[in-house]
Design a protein that fits this description.
- The chain has about 120 residues and is of the alpha/beta class.
- A five-stranded parallel beta sheet has the order 2-1-3-4-5, with helices on both faces.
- The protein has a domain at about 15-25 and about 35-80 and about 105-120: 3-Layer(aba) Sandwich (Rossmann fold).
- The model has no long low-confidence stretch (mean pLDDT about 95).
- The protein is built from five helices and five strands; from the N terminus they run βαβαβαβαβα.
């Protein structure tokens, strides 16, 4: 499973990369920090999964998600944030996210989901 990480914090980029490559069958093929960079990278690489931060520098994760779905990308998208996920969930679902998770609290759940996708029965 090829993954693109979209995250503006270099520290969190590296942390996510270490976590994701610990899952058998997962390869991180790209990392982007900004909205336009992320869209171009995903268009070019066509990953199976995108982990998508909400707050990008510059830009916003929902703008990336909207652009991907409008362009016809069918990759899985897990939106990750440090913001309260409750109010964001309806918009994430409406835009076509496959999940919305708190980076601080839901890491195990994210990894479990990635494992399920990377190692289907």
């Amino acid at each position: 499973m090829n993954v693109v990480i979209v995250e503006d914090s270099e520290l969190i980029q590296k942390w996510l990369q270490r976590l994701l490559v610990s899952v058998p069958g997962v390869e991180v093929v790209g990392v982007a920090a900004a909205q336009d960079e992320a869209i171009a990278m995903i268009d070019r690489l066509e990953p199976d999964l995108v982990t998508l931060d909400m707050a990008l520098s510059p830009g916003h994760g929902f703008n990336v998600l909207k652009a991907l779905r409008q362009a016809g990308h069918t990759c899985k998208v897990l939106v990750l944030t440090n913001q309260d996920t409750g109010p964001l969930r309806p918009m994430a679902e409406q835009l076509g996210a496959d999940g919305l998770y708190d980076k601080s609290l839901d890491v195990a759940t994210v990894l479990e989901q990635v494992r399920a996708w990377a190692q289907p029965d």
